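Look over both lines:
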Amino acid sequence: MTVSLTNTSGRCLVFVLAHETYCKALGECRCDVEQGRRARRTAKSLTLASDVTSPALDDAVLTIPDVVRAVKRGDLAVKRHVPELPKPVVAATPPFHTTSLAEVIRPDVKAKKNKRGAS
C-alpha cells in the first residue's frame, strides 16, 4: 500500500530514510551505494517544503521514528492510497418491451399519440 505525506508544519521538514528502519521495513535496500574500495551506503532522505504533499510513497516510511513523531505532533498529515477494485462487467441484456407511465396507471385507456406539429 502507498501513502502520501503532507507537510502542515509551516516550515521545511527533512527525514532521513535510514537503512536500519526504512530499508528493513521495505524488504529491499534503497540506499545509494558509492563506488570505490569501501562501498558505502548513503541513506536517502525525504524533503517536504511547507504545505507540500509528497508523491506516493511505500508505507514503510511510516516506520521511521521521526516521521511517526511528526505525525503525532500534527506536523504531517498522512493519506493512504487504497487500490481501486476492478469494476464488474455488466452483461448486455436483450431489449424488453417498455411500458409508459400512462399504461401503468390506467391500463384500460390507450394513450393518444401526438400528431406532428401539435403541441
The longest strand covers residues 2-7. The mean pLDDT is 81. The longest helix spans residues 65-73. The chain has three helices and seven strands.
